[in-house]
Backbone:
């Protein structure tokens, strides 16, 4: 009997001795980090409201209870019974019965009403039909990404169960090593912005955190091929953790599967969907620009299939000696600070990913309360000594000023933006400003996946700021459904119409003007001195956005949409930069994040910033808070224990 | 045609165009780092005295010329002719003809006379017989190690040629990577003394430097199994470089071959032989102490077979982007500071190995002149703020005092010492002291390989201090041949005789009292209050030697030679420590080594010292010379470019 089988047999014995005699336990298995208990008496299990919680705390595992399939009522009958239990107002849009696991997936517009107070409705469903209910939200705005992901996962259920079982056995394998150490190897985003990637390793476990591209230097990948990363084979990695979906963190995650990785990706559910959206677009852009994409869309599907979603605050075993907890990072939808608890109290490391410390319209500010963190790996995008941003309130005033002035000149406002994050923040600003009469009513065109990204936001309101979440739950208050928002889905023709029409606001990707429809908008509006190009986000070194900010006005148009190839464009429109909308904490925010941590970490690695930013931040944190701080280079390894 | 074959074809063309028309070039191959030119006209080649040097400088390669085998005179004739050319006084002891390569190995007591002025005699041999002469010294004291190694290499010639050809093709392969970086990974000897081991890596090349054991903690190996070391497979290592033969640097070199390593070991010839001696003893000791040896003696032979000896000062290509030069380290016979020139002027790193900066009786002080060194990895054994040693002259006085006092009490002096290095230094001190009447004439017993180690010293006088070398060349002045030196080769019986006999001096391994015959000597003399145990070398933490220095007088004798197992011994003999004989530079010596470097390195990694020693030295070098200094932990990686 293998070590894991022995463990499961022991666990089953414990469970049998803990549950009332009338509940029969037929099987106990691992599915990813969860312990799954099969029972012939799912109803009695459900009646003992506290039983699962007691078992979870006793076994120190996350627990799922499933009915043995032969005690289930047939789907046809069950369907009616489920409908009868759930209140009409929940607006169920889909019921999907999985006979292999005894689960019924309920898609509803109001998931809360399916769940009931403290899960009472769910328990009632199990009591009635035996099936285990799982609830997902019907996207308030139709999202092809969300429905594609859900359909794909439905179709791949068998494969996915195999993966989860394998991963579960890996996680719960016996510890092998007597050694004790904790190390971080930097594979990218050190003294640079882009290609975020790290290895966290112990004698037992190797975790890869992020694998992004570098905007403006598309051929500079993280150093995945060195021995300490994938050099010993992709299967030597136990787990991949993705902090958020921005391409500078996620672009090369699917590549891992091409390299033979076959393990789990831990991330939040919205990050999974956004990663799908953004990496598929990444492949598109590469193809359009004539670069060979490093992987194909099949690998994106592999990544989605291998994702084990985890929720903020859940403590998850990801290997015999590491527990992962993700916390809101305030940066984009689903973005997470990833906290690793290593050994039994041996060491704690947190990777900030990208963070925003203060609340924004979209998100609550980043969490910085952890029971313990000895080492913090901290983004430093705005860590430079002068990187203090304007307050967002002032920035909003300035943006509205620019919009009013441009409107009065009969010009349009063109805003390059990431599809995900700042676009939705700006939508909220613009919606409010028009509603309150601060700026004239005019169309706001969303080009290049922003619409789709917005739809994903509305699918996961739990990840948005509290008051915004509540508004989204009411269709008539959902700001993203406001009339002035228009999805550019008619391509060049529609863009030409917009150009020829009345003054408008255009939000378009890419956010750093490195390709995408913004190139086309620049051609349309670039020579119009009445219009204004307005930067609202960080422009990395080497990107066209940064160059235009620095005064370039002759723009090579060789990676546009086929027209103007090899030509240059004289930029005659106004160029403005409004900071303060960043999804990143500014210098003050970064310091506040660290300052208010309790206890403060002993060590901080400053990463994800230009050379001077990481140096400035590292030196400031050292001098002000007397922590040991570092500004690592790529390809270095730090040992902590 | 492979890339290397193409390169060789091009090289052959160049050579043909450079040599006079009457010299035919039949083949050009690589043997390890050397380019071997085969010619049907070895005599004409030899006549053109300057030709080889010109080709070497044009091709930037080390060059060996070999005769095509069908132009050689038959060995029987050649033997007489060779004898007729070499002067009688050279005392040739062996002539060995290798028909596969056209080499004749000449073993002589006076190799210099076989070589002649600027190699004139060698050239004369080639002109007469066509064979290429190679000269080795007949050991003045018979050494079974040296003769075993030589016989073994003779017997393995075919294998060895295959290895050299393979290595040669590896070294001269085309560079594959566009990346540029230089990294050092620490696998051992950081914040500790023992288990020296490093990886030096570039995108092209991975070099392992040293792989030693840890005295007093025999199960603590260097971290060879991590991905950045052998984790990707032992064959991912391009080259192994061994700084010197002490076990804390060499013990696990043979283990690499058990792990599948099949590449070259670069080191000096004496280090090769001493490594053979010491690692075989390491296996013996492990067996005697009931530990499972990590490899068997076959692996020691593999290590010897894969060694490519290099001489101090020779610049050797060891990979497409790295050149190695070894320099005298002044520490033990053959010890070398290993200097790596990376890329074409990209970066230079020197690993000090263990060094002694001042001249000693045995060795010239460590070389610290290098064209460039940006990073120095520096031993710090005596780097602590108080680690200033007595001058050796004063130490010698003190030692002689102890000997005289002990002698007057009718006691004996027991000195634990490494077989290699300090023992020979002490022999020189004692020989002179007795010759000059400073201490009474009495037997000096050498136990545990010291005799053999001494024989190896006399085989390689070129590696000794100039004036000592000259004395060794004259039998009547060779201090190691003095009458009072006695080789303990009669085991326990002889030890008992010594104990029962007149006062004597005993030098015995192991140097840190971690096993070996010193344990037996302690049993013999331990309870004799008239005798004196005298430490003259560094005692690492965790060793019995260090404990005795700290005042322990109840000594567990459970790893002795079978007797007294499990007993404790009450130590009643005097215990003295005389520093100043160390093979290591003291704090002043380390500082002087760095201070007088020109130019000084930008960065220094302080290693091979207790935690406080490396911290002290690192901080002192930073404050005094304003260099960036580090006290790495094991398992860290530093990037330099
Ligand atoms: Zn981001
Ligand atoms: Zn980022
Ligand atoms: Zn970012
Ligand atoms: Zn040494
Ligand atoms: Zn050493």
Residues:
């Amino acid at each position: 009997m293998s070590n894991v089988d022995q463990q499961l047999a022991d666990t089953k014995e414990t469970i049998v001795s803990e549950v009332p005699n009338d509940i029969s336990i037929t099987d106990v298995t691992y599915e990813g980090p969860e312990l799954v208990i099969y029972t012939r008496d799912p109803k009695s299990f459900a009646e003992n409201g506290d039983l699962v919680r007691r078992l979870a705390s006793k076994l120190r595992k996350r627990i799922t209870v499933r009915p043995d399939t032969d005690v289930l009522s047939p789907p046809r009958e069950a369907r009616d019974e489920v409908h009868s239990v759930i209140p009409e107002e929940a607006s169920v849009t889909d019921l999907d019965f999985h006979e292999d696991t005894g689960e019924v997936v309920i898609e509803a517009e109001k998931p809360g009403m399916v769940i009931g107070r403290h899960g009472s409705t769910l328990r009632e469903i199990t009591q009635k039909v035996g099936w285990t209910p799982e609830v997902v939200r019907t996207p308030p705005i139709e999202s092809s990404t969300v429905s594609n992901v859900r359909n794909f996962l439905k179709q791949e259920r068998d494969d996915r169960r195999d993966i989860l079982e394998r991963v579960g056995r890996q996680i719960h394998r016996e510890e092998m090593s007597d050694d004790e150490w904790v190390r971080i190897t930097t594979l990218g985003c050190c003294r640079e912005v882009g290609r975020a990637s790290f290895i966290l390793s112990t004698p037992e476990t190797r975790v890869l955190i992020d694998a992004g591209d570098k905007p403006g230097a598309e051929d500079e990948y993280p150093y995945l091929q060195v021995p300490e990363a994938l050099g010993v084979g992709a299967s030597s990695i136990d787990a991949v953790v993705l902090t958020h979906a921005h391409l500078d963190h996620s672009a090369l995650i699917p590549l891992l599967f091409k390299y033979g990785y076959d393990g789990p990706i831990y991330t939040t559910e919205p990050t999974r969907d956004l990663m799908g959206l953004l990496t598929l677009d990444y492949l598109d852009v590469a193809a359009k620009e004539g670069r060979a994409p490093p992987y194909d869309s099949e690998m994106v599907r592999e990544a989605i299939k291998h994702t084990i979603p985890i929720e903020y605050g859940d403590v998850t075993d990801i290997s015999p000696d590491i527990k992962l907890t993700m916390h809101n990072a305030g940066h984009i939808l689903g973005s997470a600070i990833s906290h690793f608890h290593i050994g039994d109290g041996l060491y704690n490391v947190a990777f900030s990913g990208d963070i925003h410390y203060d609340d924004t319209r979209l998100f609550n500010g980043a969490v910085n309360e952890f029971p313990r963190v000895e080492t913090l790996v901290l983004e430093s995008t705005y860590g430079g000594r002068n990187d203090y941003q304007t307050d967002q309130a002032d920035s909003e005033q300035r943006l509205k000023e620019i919009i009013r002035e441009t409107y009065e000149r009969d010009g349009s406002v063109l805003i390059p933006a990431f599809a995900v994050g700042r676009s939705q923040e700006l939508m909220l600003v613009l919606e409010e400003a028009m509603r309150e009469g601060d700026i004239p009513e005019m169309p706001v065109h969303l080009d290049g996946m922003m619409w789709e990204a917005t739809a994903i936001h509305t699918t996961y309101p739990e990840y948005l700021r509290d008051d915004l979440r509540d508004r989204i739950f009411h269709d008539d208050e959902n700001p993203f459904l406001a009339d002035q928002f228009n999805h550019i889905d008619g391509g060049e023709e529609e863009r030409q119409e917009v150009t020829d029409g009345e003054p408008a606001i255009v939000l378009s990707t890419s956010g750093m003007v490195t390709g995408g429809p913004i190139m086309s908008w620049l051609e349309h509006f670039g020579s119009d001195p009445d219009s204004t190009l307005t930067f609202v986000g960080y422009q990395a070194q080497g990107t066209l956005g940064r160059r235009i900010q620095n005064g370039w006005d002759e723009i090579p148009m060789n990676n546009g949409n086929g027209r103007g190839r090899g030509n240059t464009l004289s930029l005659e429109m106004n160029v403005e930069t409004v900071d303060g909308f960043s999804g990143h904490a500014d210098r003050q925010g970064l310091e506040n994040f660290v300052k208010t941590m309790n206890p403060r970490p002993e060590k901080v690695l400053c990463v994800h910033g230009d050379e001077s930013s990481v140096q400035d931040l590292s030196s400031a944190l050292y001098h002000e808070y007397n922590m040991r701080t570092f500004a690592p280079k790529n390809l270095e390894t730090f040992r902590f224990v």
